[in-house]
Write a structure and sequence with these properties.
Blueprint lengths: L2 H10 L36 E35 L10 E3 L2 E11 L3 E37 L4 E5 L3 H6 L1
Antiparallel strand pairs: 1-4, 2-3, 3-4, 4-5
């Protein structure tokens, strides 16, 4: 409260301590005013500074190791040259000991027509593992918080510690 407001309040409040005591006759009433003061608080928003948050990106080169599997096949042609008997069913593709065998048939023209098993195609599958190293660049961001004063000057900078970065 300002000095002016205090003076005005004192002028409004009755002051009985400076007056001479009043004597009352029997049966006479005296009314004494009772005064209560109240206080009021007001708030207002005042900008004392600002905060600026930015991210920084760090890069780290690493070598990643991994095993890669590749499959390859070997094709072997096995000549058979066997003529199928009259009424014999044509052979179908089959698997024997991990080898896929596909019959190749051919019709040949003779005085009579016969089905001849010309060859079989044998396909063998093999697998190989290969260890590889691939260079990669990993990026990691961290937040930097700068507190700015009302005039725009940086007053405080906060970065996460290494333990905070690894725990999140």
């Amino acid at each position: 409260m300002t000095a002016h407001e205090l003076d005005q309040r004192e002028q409004r409040l009755p002051t009985h301590h400076d007056e001479a005591p009043t004597k009352l006759a029997t049966g006479e009433n005296l009314t004494i005013p009772v005064v209560v003061e109240t206080a009021r608080i007001e708030k207002q928003v005042v900008e004392t500074g600002r905060v600026r948050v930015r991210t920084e990106t760090e890069t780290q080169d690493q070598i990643l190791r991994e095993s890669l599997r590749s499959d390859s096949v070997a094709v072997t042609r096995v000549p058979v040259n066997r003529t199928l008997a009259e009424g014999e069913a044509a052979p179908v593709a089959r698997v024997e000991d991990g080898v896929t065998i596909i019959p190749v048939l051919e019709e040949i023209l003779v005085v009579e027509k016969r089905l001849v098993l010309k060859e079989e195609v044998h396909i063998r599958q093999t697998s190989a593992d290969e260890d590889v190293e691939v260079p990669v660049t990993l990026r990691k961001q961290r937040a930097v918080v700068e507190r700015l004063s009302a005039d725009g000057q940086t007053t405080d900078t906060t970065s996460p510690t290494r333990s905070e970065e690894t725990s999140s």
